[in-house]
Amino acid sequence: MQAWRVHENGEPSKVMRLEETERPVPGAGQVLLAVRAANVNFPDALLCRGQYQVRPPLPFTPGVEICGETEDGRRVIANPALPHGGFAEYAVADAAALLPAPEALDDAEAAALHIGYQTGWFGLHRRARLEAGETLLVHAAAGGVGSAAVQLGKAAGATVIGVVGGPAKATVARELGCDVVVDRRAEDVVAAVKEATGGRGADVVYDPVGGEAYTQSAKTVAFEGRIVVVGFAGGTVPAPALNHALVKNYSILGLHWGLYNTKNPQLVRHCHEQLTELAARGAVKPLVSERVPLGGAADAVQRVADGVTTGRVSVLPARGEGSAA
Question: DSSP string covering 51-110, please?
Answer without folding.
Answer: -SS--PPSSBB----EEEE-TT--EEEE---TTB-SSBSEEEEEGGG-EEPPTTS-HHHH
